[in-house]
Amino acid sequence: MTRIVDFCGAGRRHYQDAELLMNNNRVPNAGHLFGFAAECGIKALLVSHGLSTDPTTGDLVETRPYKYKTHVNVLINNVQTFSGSPGYSKYVGMMPNLKAFSNWDTSHRYYDELSIPTSLADWRVAAGEVIRMLDQGKLDGVIK
Amino acid sequence: MREATVFFNDALREAIGILLKAFPADKIPLVIRDIYGRIRIAFNEESKVLHGFEEKLAEEWVKLGHYGQYEGKKVLSKDDFFDPSSVFESPDILTYQPPESEKTIQILDRQITGQEWTRIIALGMATPRLVFHGIKGGVGRSTAIAMLAYHLAKKGKNVLLIDFDLESPGLSGLMLPPDLMAEFGIVDWFVEDGVGQGNEILPRMLSICPLSQAEGVTGRILVAAASGMNERAYLAKLSRVYADIPRNGGGIERFPSRMARLVEALEKQESPDVILIDSRAGLHDLAAVNIVGLGTKAFLFAVDSTQTWQGYRLLFSHWQFYPEIARKVRERLAIVDALFPEVNQEVRANSFLEHAYDLFSATLYDEIAPGSDRLSPDLFNYDMRDKEAPHYPLRIKWNARFQEFNVNLISEKILTSADIESAYGDFLSGVELFIEGEQT
Fold first, then answer.
1. Any CB–CB contact under 8 A between B57 and chain A?
2. A120, B37, B186, B203: least surrounded by Cβ within 10 Å?
3. Rounded to an integer, what distance in angstroms lies between the CA atom of residue A131 and that of residue A115?
């Protein structure tokens, strides 16, 4: 099957699943998915503002060292310095709490449950901002 | 046969025509026009209810040419958004009335700038806030504001002047000697507020205009200038002024609401009797926030030239598409004949009046039904010679003595009360009448 990347759709999917897990008290994996949701949403924004993608798969095209082909805890540091148009700043301004992900790590999946930071509420707020930003980008016709 | 190219001018009208034919009047969907001008529609329904709509619309949507082309869906549902309320309950949804049509639709018109021309801000403030705007600059707006402030202060009023002409600040140069300027200016407040310390500079951004000490003045004139004393980083600050900032408790606070918060904070701090706002000229968003958002009355400075009337026509006809906004805005407008000439006055006065009347009657006045020669009290419409009408100008007579005005000319009595009365009398008494009307 052809591999097709859809950052926007994937972001929403992860967010919805994170909510399901959270509402069923599955906190560690809920937090994990909020991080992936935010990562995908941010990547959708970057792609819509000129970050290169593979024309067939839609995946990011970037050579090492990666700035954008990264997980959310690294990605949030490069969002501010991405040289987008003035319109790009508008969308970045819609996500004022991205720094909440600085203590998120993809390696949390290996961790003992008690070792994972108890930041679920903050991650949820930040991921929610990213997903709401996608709605606005869609209305503008900027994000597909 | 090749279809004719559809341009921006026609795309929306074409889309509305399609929708009015395709749906009953009470089922017309929300029209979304994106930042490129492309048009889609959205229903506040789940997608399964809209089965077949996409195909149904596709055939007709071709008529919109490039303005109807989307890779994705043209018919959006609740399911297409994470937070449908941000779409379907957006405060930016407006009732749109196409020209020469009785029918209206709901539109969410996404714009890069310019949205402020249709955004009313509800302010819980009692002080009259008078905005002075010109579609073109260089018509003596700042000098008129200075004269008005002086006039009101002589009558014992405490006046607060705010220079929101940030891209072309001039009010402070007119009102304040450089050594009397406050430590901080308005651009400083926006920058400091962005990092949460705007309140610290609030008490340090006002200067007392020396006219407050002039003979016969019992009120006080405070000036909130665009910049502070010895400003050396104005552009670095200006470039950050329009930022939206994180709001306490989540979300973002947009620039217009920050502007309103600044005005409210200054009002609370100083309790002035009247606030005079120097607006940026032209069709910039900053002017929009002043006129539509902040002002209780907007005085539009005009000279009797084709460029001026064309400029105002561009603005007024934008409002004309949005009847709810037009109804609110038109009541707070007043026209100022800013450079009434010294010669040929009767002819020039008539010409100005006719042009101002034409502008209002073609755009913002209600139409009178054909065959009726009586003005209904419910209609917003005026006779050309009705002095109460918004189009009837307050007049400022051109006078060479005011061309290089500064406040010293008054304190040194080079300009006398008689000079001021002769040039500005009509304007000053007209504005004063309005202030009295607002306070009663």
1. no
2. B203
3. 27
B329's enclosing H/E stretch is: helix B323-330
Is A100 inside a domain boundary? yes
A144 to chain B, closest Cα gap in Å: 7
Comparing CB atoms, the residue among B36, B244, B251 nearest residue A141 is B36
Q: CA-based angle A130:A133:A138, to the nearest 5?
A: 130
The fold of the B121-439 domain, in CATH, is Rossmann fold (3.40.50)
Nearest-neighbour CA in chain A from B5: distance (Å): 21
For residue B102, the 8-state DSSP code is S
Q: What is the pLDDT of residues B162-214, one digit of tens each?
A: 999 999 998 888 899 989 999 999 999 999 999 899 999 999 999 999 999 98
What is the rounded CA–CA span in Å between residue A118 and residue A114?
9
CB contact under 8 A, B35 and A93: no
- Residues in B touching A138 (Cβ below 8 Å): 80-81
Number of domains observed in the structure of chain A: 1
Residue range of the domain that includes A67: 7-140
Residue A66 per-residue DSSP state? P
B248 vs A: CB within 8 A = no
Look at A125 and B86 and tell me if their CB atoms are within 8 Å.
no
What CATH number is associated with residue A83? 1.20.120
In three-state secondary structure terms, B33 is strand
Report the predicted TM-score, pTM, of the whole model to 2 decimal places. Answer: 0.86
Indicate whether A1 belongs to any domain. Answer: no
Q: List, for residues B114-166, the tens digit of each pLDDT value.
A: 778 888 777 777 899 999 999 988 899 999 999 999 999 999 999 999 999 99
Whether A59 is in a domain gets the answer yes
